[in-house]
Specification:
With about 160 residues, the protein is an alpha+beta fold. The chain is built from seven helices and five strands, in the order H-H-H-H-H-E-E-H-E-E-E-H. It has a five-stranded antiparallel beta sheet. InterPro entries: MULE_transposase_dom.
Amino acid sequence: MISQTIHELIETDPFTHISTILAHIKFTMGYIISYRKGWLGKQYAIENIFENWEESYHKLRRQLLAMQLYVLGFIWKLSTQPAYNGGLLDEGNVFFKRLFWTFKECIDGFSFCKPIVQVDGTFFTGKYEGTLLVAVAQDGRNNIILIVFAVVEGKTSNTWFFF
């Protein structure tokens, strides 16, 4: 019921603060709900509007292929790992492991950059953990040029090799 009440609010701005949701419920329905119920309502509304993350990962390969078809020079590599259910291999299922992508323009632009590549990463927190790695360079005007991107499970020697 909460997710239905805030559906339009979340559809307009998925980053709506929980305090705004609590105030909206109090104003429209006259109820005071807990922070947890507001947070859960927001999660359900987001899932109803945008689908859940698991379904999004199942569409990832198809979306990458579409990007490759419509964006000339789009380069990507998706790495998955087998899924296990109760210790047994689940033949029809795989899990996301790593994704690397870049664009031809980024690679071509690198030839006009200073001969130094800077690599950095930032951690994802929350339900799905991982690390976003990026490699950048500077052009002659000191502008930062993005070269390649990767989403990996963490900063390990295997992920650096993949990157």
